[in-house]
Amino acid sequence: MIRSTILIGLFLLSGLSHSAFAQKPGKWVPLFNGKDIKDWFVKIHHHEVGENFGNTFRVEDNIIKVRYDQYGDYNNQYGHLYYKTPFSYYHLKLEYRFVGEWCKTAPEYTILNSGLMYHSQDPRTMPKEQDWPISIEMQFLAGLGDGKPRPTGNMCSPGTHIFYNGKLDTRHCINSSSKTYEGEQWVKAEIIVLGDSLITHIINGDTVMQYSKPQIGGPVVNNYDPKQKQDGKALKSGFIALQSEGQPIDFRNIEIMVLPKP
């Protein structure tokens, strides 16, 4: 009986500590412990939530690595790794780098392409055959070595819309003003999210994009639960996820600062 009481007390204390972490603003907190992804959920297209098919997301050398060496045919198995807690007002920062060879059976647009999803639906509300989460994406791209500009820190909107330059913009992706980053270099990406108000994208210290009023609406997401897609609903909070869509990529130094709500 005493042991059970102690365990219950520790569980409640853990819940209080977690709540305090989620609500206490003004302090940088790591989301990735450098050792494992036990605080994260995996959801990959064609698979149930929690199944890390092909060991897609793995941890080595304090880095979250996205790899496809156990795949065979890619088969549109788009994947996302979600932090366990939703957020609303926050400043998030991380570093990413593209590495290795693109999975040749993935769609061609995924070459040197990945991203960070935010205000995402809970992955546990996604059917097995839903391809993308209803979310907003801070898209990461690298140069293709052809001398043409290919900015990073762009905005993409699976199942969502935003207001850009003060007007509803229904384009799926909008380019940022960032320069092009070639090769396997680390790039620092930051996003400042103020609920359903202003969103700011920052690349290597430069503000490259701002927009507002993220909301549910539009195409691209398929095979979703209709209850989850209420078009026109403001997106005030949601889950954060790292993307896998055919290009090996590394993520490190993932930290968040909860910001005070007005």
Automatic annotation (TrEMBL):
Superkingdom as given in the UniProt entry: Bacteria
Keywords, alphabetical: Signal
InterPro entries in the cross-refs: AL/BT2_dom (IPR010496)
All copies of domain 3-keto-alpha-glucoside-1,2-lyase/3-keto-2-hydroxy-glucal hydratase, residue ranges: 27-256
Signal peptide bounds: 1-22
Listed GO MF terms: hydrolase activity
Entries under Pfam families matching the protein: 3keto-disac_hyd
Protein name: 3-keto-alpha-glucoside-1,2-lyase/3-keto-2-hydroxy-glucal hydratase domain-containing protein
Organism of derivation: Chitinophaga niabensis
Native organism taxonomy: Bacteria, Pseudomonadati, Bacteroidota, Chitinophagia, Chitinophagales
